[in-house]
């Protein structure tokens, strides 16, 4: 594909969308049942990362694309590239969410940028989300989505401290059941997380793909455990796809008030990382 026509996408800049939801005990129970051992136990009634399960897009099946995402050209711009994934983001925690409240997610398209990557053209779309109840702001997030051509995904590079026991905090072995349950929690129909044939034959992954938000949730809770409080700032980015089968290792290197957390597999290949700070 040639150069991306950003002028055709410009009308989406500044576009807004508002969704509402109620934070229920039922959602929290399902979230804890899915991720329990890896959630910070100091968060109180509402676990960290559950905001990614609130005020979701509820697109009917007839309005989905082949990959399971909503058809292009709704709230998000109709980027003419077939593959889409989380690239990164920045979360600011302002106040804890409360059970039983109506949560509003107010979203806006902040930026659309085209770049040339090693695999071809890339388009980065930055979306700002604000989570509110009435006029009280709880969380502000800048999230970047990257669109690209379908090609064999890069695998990343081995971490220099892959075997360092001083940074390794815990491990888990994700399986298709975990990926299915997290897809259900986030109403995420992207087929790379549950359809092995589609993931390997159409999008050229080596196996089912572990969700970016799932890895971000694990790292957010790891950071909170290190700080013994919710991180005020949590800036994350995807480094490479993490596919099954794998061992997911959670690492932390910090000073007590800030630090770096990351996910890597049993070979030391980093898939996701984040910087965090208490203030």
TrEMBL record:
InterPro entries: FAS1-like_DH_region (IPR039569), HotDog_dom_sf (IPR029069), Mitochondrial_HTD2 (IPR052741). One of its GO terms (molecular function) is (3R)-hydroxyacyl-[acyl-carrier-protein] dehydratase activity. Gene3D superfamilies: Hotdog Thioesterase. It holds the Pfam family FAS1_DH_region. It comes from the Bacteria. Signal peptide: none annotated. Residues 16-134 form the FAS1-like dehydratase domain. This is FAS1-like dehydratase domain-containing protein. It comes from Pseudooceanicola atlanticus.
């Amino acid at each position: 594909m040639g150069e991306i026509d950003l002028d055709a996408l410009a009308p989406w800049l500044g576009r807004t969308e508002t969704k509402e939801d109620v934070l229920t005990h039922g959602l929290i129970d399902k979230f804890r049942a899915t991720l329990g051992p890896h959630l910070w136990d100091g968060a109180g009634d509402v676990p960290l990362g559950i905001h990614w399960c609130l005020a979701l897009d509820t697109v009917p099946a007839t309005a989905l694309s082949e990959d399971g995402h909503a058809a292009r050209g709704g709230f998000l711009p109709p980027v003419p590239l077939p593959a889409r994934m989380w690239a990164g983001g920045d979360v600011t925690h302002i106040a804890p969410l409360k059970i039983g409240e109506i949560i509003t997610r107010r979203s806006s398209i902040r930026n659309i940028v085209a770049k040339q990557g090693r695999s071809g053209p890339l388009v980065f779309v930055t979306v700002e989300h604000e989570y509110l109840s009435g006029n009280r702001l709880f969380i502000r997030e800048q999230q970047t989505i990257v669109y690209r051509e379908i090609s064999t995904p890069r695998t990343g590079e081995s971490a220099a401290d892959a075997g360092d026991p001083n940074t390794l905090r815990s491990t888990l072995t994700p399986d298709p059941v975990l990926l299915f349950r997290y897809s259900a929690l986030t109403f995420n129909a992207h087929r790379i997380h549950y359809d092995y044939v589609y993931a390997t034959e159409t999008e050229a992954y080596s196996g089912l793909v572990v969700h970016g938000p799932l890895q971000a949730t694990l790292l957010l809770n790891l950071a909170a455990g290190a700080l013994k409080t919710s991180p005020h700032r949590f800036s994350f980015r995807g480094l490479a796809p993490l596919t099954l089968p794998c061992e997911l290792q959670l690492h932390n290197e910090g000073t007590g008030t800030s630090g770096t957390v990351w996910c890597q597999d049993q070979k030391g290949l980093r898939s996701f990382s984040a910087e965090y700070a208490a203030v």
